[in-house]
Amino acid sequence: MSDRTRPQEKGPDLSAAFRSPIARPPTRFQSQSDRVFRIVAQGFGVAVVLLLASIVVQVLRHAAPAMAEHGIGFLWRSRWDTNGDNYGVLPQILGTLYTSVLALMLGGVLGLTVALVTSQGFIGRRWELTMKNIIELLAAIPSVVYGLWGIFVLIPAVRPAATWLHEHFASFPLFSTELSGPGILPAALVLAIMILPTITAVSREALAAVPKRLPAAAYGLGATRWEVIFRVVLPTASGGIFGAMVLGFGRALGETMALAMLVGNANDFGWSLFSPGSTLAALLANHFPEAGKVEVGALMYAAVVLLLITLAVNALGSLIMLRTTRELKGLN
Q1: CB count, 10 Å around CB of 295?
Q2: 141's torsion region: left (phi>0), alpha (psi -120 to 50) or beta?
Q3: Is 332 strand, coil or helix?
Q4: Spatial separation of the C-alpha atoms in residues 296 and 66, rounded to whole Å
Q5: Half-sphere exposure of 186 (CA within 13 A, CB side)
Q6: Burial of 262 (0-12, 13-18, 19+ CB in 10 A)
Q7: How far apart are CA 56 and CA 277, in angstroms?
Q8: What are phi and psi of 209, to 5 degrees?
Q9: Residue range 7-16: average pLDDT?
Q10: Beta carbons of 274 and 210 less than 8 angstroms apart
Q11: In whole angstroms, what is the distance from residue 36 CA to residue 45 CA?
């Protein structure tokens, strides 16, 4: 039978697909709803930017007289004398950075460990979800509750060890004073717990985003589990992990109530872990309720310093996270 006389085979009937509601063009209501949603979403985005700009402008406006009067020397002076109109925030800047770095060292190691345990198959799925939820619940605890827990539980718990270290290693700068109450160490420990959820969550996502073919290839070459983790998984996710550390550091810099309750609020800075100190956030929380007009200007100047430090750290962390995400998507 020739091709001309052979019956033509019927192709698939596409009419049913075009009659499907999914394949129909959007209705007028759907088009208008989509347009309204886009406008609302763009409006909220612009509102967030305007809100941030408004906060910065208002803080700068109230701080401008003090900035003009005290100048850059405000950052290097160490006295806070309301009677003599002499203000400086050097101890507070150093205390903010010191407590935040200590918290990052403690919380970073613990957070990365938890992220590894919950993302690399060390425990069962049920225990993994349980641990993940418990860590995330730490972020829901109010800051003042952390402060109260630190005063009534943490300080009495660490005082015996602090006393022993001071008695045996008093010549060492970190243990040169005795822990008699609130101080740098209790504040740093509480801060480490408070930044733990941020570091754990972001690090876990970075580890989970590592392409599966990379560990599989390493296993195929004969690598052990720990070799795969330390030579493949961690280096690949290092950008995201570093971004988690930066975001946790930014979280620690802006903490207020727990630090105000635990750091000791001494207008001085010392390297000893057991000495009292102060931070920029604690300074603002403690002095604003009773501040006069002149002191308010100096406090707003201190707020500008804290705002700039926090914004710079968080912007750096966001840029690192964005770059890492793009690199990992390119590997997938």
Answers
A1: 17
A2: beta
A3: coil
A4: 9
A5: 35
A6: buried
A7: 27
A8: -80, -5
A9: 53
A10: no
A11: 14
Reported residue count of the chain is 332
pTM: 0.81
C-alpha closest to that of 174 among 182, 183, 79? 183
Around 238, how many Cα atoms within 13 Å sit in the side-chain half-sphere? Answer: 7
d(CA 296, CA 62): 8
Instruction: State both tokens at 110.
Output: 């613990």
Question: Counting Cβ atoms within 10 Å, is residue 21 exposed (0-12), middle (13-18) or buried (19+)?
Answer: exposed
Average pLDDT over residues 168-186: 87
What does the alpha-carbon distance between residue 255 and residue 147 come to, in Å, rounded to a whole number?
11
Burial of 84 (0-12, 13-18, 19+ CB in 10 A): exposed
Assign residue 85 a region: left if phi > 0, alpha if psi is -120 to 50, beta otherwise? left
Instruction: Please determine, for residue 208, whether its predicted confidence score (pLDDT) is greater than 60.
Output: yes
State the pLDDT confidence band at 41, using cuts at 50, 70 and 90.
very high
- 76 close to 164: Cβ distance less than 8 angstroms: no
Tell me the two tokens of residue 231: 């030579």
Q: Report residue 112 as tokens.
A: 């990365």
Gap between the Cα atoms of 127 and 61, Å rounded:
52
Ramachandran region, residue 121 (left: φ > 0; alpha: ψ -120 to 50; beta: rest):
left
Residues 6+ apart with CB under 8 A from 96: 253, 279, 280, 281, 306, 309
CA distances (Å), origin 107, targets 41, 61, 65, 73: 36, 36, 39, 34
Cα first-last separation, the chain:
52
In this prediction, residue 128 has a pLDDT band, given cuts at 50, 70 and 90, of confident
Distance CA 276, CA 171 (A): 18
Consecutive H or E run containing 47: helix 28-70
56/22 Cα distance (integer angstroms): 47
